[in-house]
Amino acid sequence: MKSEKIGRRTLLKGALGAGAGLVMGSSAHAIAPIKRPDSGPGRLRLSCAAYSFRYQLQGQDSAHPMTMLEFISNCAKWGCDAVELTSYYFDDPPTDAYVLSLKKAAFLHGLDVSGMPIGTNYCSADPAERAAQIAHTKKWIDRAALLGAPCIRVFAGGDAKGNIEEQRKWCVDALNECLEAAGKVGIYLAMENHGGIVAGPDELLTLVKMVDSEWFGVNLDTGNFHTDDPYRDVARVAPYAVVAQVKTEVVQGGKRQDADLGRMMKILRDSGYHGYVALEYEAAAPALEAVPKHLADLRRLIQD
After folding, report:
1. Taking a C-beta distance cutoff of 8 angstroms, is the pair 48, 84 a contact?
2. What are residue 244's DSSP bridge partners?
3. What's the CA gap between 29 and 210, in Å, rounded?
């Protein structure tokens, strides 16, 4: 019944008190954290992002080519619970038969599909380009529903050189239209902290609080806050995450360094996050050597 459907913004007005949320200015509050079952500390499950093997999947590593089916098989051998199937490496066009072949392979290997990242830019000044980005998102919502992926990662786009308020409005309008389609098939859209108009935690949460949908949240990338204290900023955003991508490095104070993965896992648990932790490997060591080791380390940390 329509009377039973209460929008996120309406709920927030009633739920947020003067001291609730994260302060974005003198009086504005971020959205309430994702409501999760009261089942204790965060329950984490291990996934791996296909993006970790971008050179192999794109044929740029001629000595070690890899298909998406081989990626799925490898993740099973490496002890993952799930796979993150990045849309960049799907057959083009992504036919039903191809999508179903990936779904079948994951199932037969005992793996979930934790998510499907896509690339988007909702901040173009060209209305036709924004419309194309919305159509692109809706296409992948259909693909995710067929695949059985619960979540799609999206980017905001934009940059600090333009009118931030205008870009933010374009982005929110596009997201709201996409979320109408996503909610009908039970797919989350998750906004990543990926530069542009969502480069920092304040900018990200300012955007997120403007979107009125129960099918929206944050794709938290632990390596993408290039600030004086990325751990602090990850902790601020973690309560709003519906999926997490973990990198093995952080950029702190302008210096790239190894991430304290144990600290990152504690931050996620303490925030109450339940869900997948997808290793997204970008460091210099060869992925085929480094990824299995990092996955083993993450599995141990998740189980501790």
Report:
1. yes
2. 220, 277
3. 11
- Please determine, looking at this structure, whether the domain spanning 43-303 carries the CATH number 3.40.50.970: no
- The identity of residue 150, as a single letter, is P
DSSP H stretches of helix in 51-156:
54-57, 68-77, 96-108, 127-147
Which residues neighbour 182 within 8 Å (Cβ) at sequence distance 6 or greater?
Answer: 141, 152, 188, 189, 213, 215
Q: How many CB atoms lie within 10 A of CB 73?
A: 18
Q: Which two tokens stand for residue 241?
A: 């995450």
Q: What are the structural domain ranges in the chain? A: 43-303
Burial of 266: CB neighbours in 10 Å, binned 0-12, 13-18, 19+: middle
pTM (2 d.p.): 0.88
Placement of tokens 């050179």 in the chain:
55
Convert the pLDDT of each residue in 199-257 to its tens digit.
Answer: 999 999 999 999 989 999 999 999 999 999 999 999 999 999 999 999 999 999 999 99
**Mind listing the pLDDT tens digit for each residue in 266-296?**
999 999 999 999 999 999 999 999 999 999 9
